[in-house]
């Protein structure tokens, strides 16, 4: 707070000297200078405290323009000319600041420039993608809010996905629901956590009292506390809650620098606050603690995606002509980007890019940005194919379930078995998860849905085979043949077909759909079968062809 008083006092004195005519009588001059300085000091201190704006001198350029203008108007003679020159100088500064978006577009593009590759690594089909949609998680957490003591004081805060002890989980703080609730409660009681891979998981409330939170007021407001401890830092994005391996919560926020003239943003590090004690630490990006996954705020990633997509040939081209311009999607779950976890355990922000031309749902590429470092890679996709963008995938889902009025949320592009594919959770009108929908980005006619991501993947493998594509899973699946006697068999109806799972006497499990092998519907225990399958390493190996002794295959 001392820094606020110092900078407010300095600016107040300068403002008084600029505005008050120095040719006035000595008694009136001193009185006017003191009165205006005190008034300016009070106004500035209040503005700084309420807005949490950074305490850099460059933030005061509008104040300088107003002060020099008023001073020029009220002064006379030589003093008026001198203050008039200062006013013209302030106008030059104002023009410089306001015109920055026009002339620093190339700098923004250079800051956001991405490494380019063709396609992401194929997804390991033995894993489960972190694909439980946040809207569904939020609904479940709200229904579990009865676990919170003094429930009426609080509401659910923002969701954040994170890896904790090798598990992918959503966390959401409990926040105050208003000023008087904060006044009476003083501290929030803790946070909720729920699996990001298992939709059947139930939210768990973790007791961890927090004093400095986004919903607290006055000096205990988290953003104000961060600003007071870091008066000159440039923040971008909202504070986010992250927990360490022991479940202790911390609030983090990205900071950095302007590209130029208080315009644009480049991330440099994070500020970490212990919400229980207010202890505040700063870390450069390279030194971020290991438990933090989202050091770079989603707002920062979204901004840099915009730089990369729009400013490839400068600012004018982004408005007129739009040569090579590609627009980042707005279908993400956090500030137009979707946080996902790769097989290496790292969190990335996913965004697909589309054409600026209206009515076109063709994807021009997609990006993955490392949540800890901000390093981004742009994937062009197979240039021989035309990929459907995320909006196109959502439209297919809407048409597929038009009678039920179900809709997709959080579409993410994966490489499933060598095929660029959209995986999208499907929710009903109440926000409850109904199924997982997978559709090929290059061949939209290939699509399936299942109750879980892994079930949908099994069906998708079959659909790709039916569509004439080869399955090149991340396990580099080799086609093999085997003969044996059926020891156990299980059949279930999935969509328009029946899915058969069977165990042979070699102790291996196999799975096949009647869409691939219609006569497989007749498989019974004790049958001798010849099977062609893909050795993917999964518990249930996908079958390409099956022959049952005694039953002719057409």
Structural overview:
This protein has 554 residues and is α+β, with helices and mostly antiparallel strands. 29% of the residues lie in helices and 30% in strands. The strands form 5 sheets. Strands 1, 12, 13, 14, 15, 16 and 17 form a 7-stranded mixed β-sheet that branches. Helix 1 crosses helix 2. The chain is elongated and about 115 Å long.
Map the helices and strands.
Layout (H helix, E strand, L loop, with lengths): L1 H18 L6 H26 L9 H14 L2 H22 L1 H4 L1 H8 L2 E3 L16 H10 L10 E3 L3 E5 L2 E10 L2 H7 L2 E8 L8 E7 L11 H8 L4 E2 L4 E4 L5 E9 L8 E8 L6 E5 L13 H13 L4 H5 L7 E2 L9 E4 L5 E8 L7 E9 L5 E4 L7 E2 L1 H11 L6 E2 L3 E5 L2 E9 L5 E8 L6 E4 L2 H14 L11 E17 L2 E8 L4 E5 L14 E8 L4 E9 L6
Short description:
The chain is α+β, with helices and mostly antiparallel strands and 554 residues long.
Provide keyphrases for this structure.
554 residues, alpha+beta, 13 helices, elongated
Major sheet attributes: 7 strands, mixed
The proportion of residues forming helix, as a percent range, comes to 25-40%
Given the helix and strand composition, which structural class is it?
alpha+beta
Percent strand equals 25-35%
Radius of gyration: 30 Å
Q: What is the count of helical runs? A: 13
* Low-confidence sequence ranges: 468-475
Overall mean pLDDT: 90
What's the total number of strands? 27
The coarse overall form would be elongated
For the termini, the CA-CA separation is: 84 Å
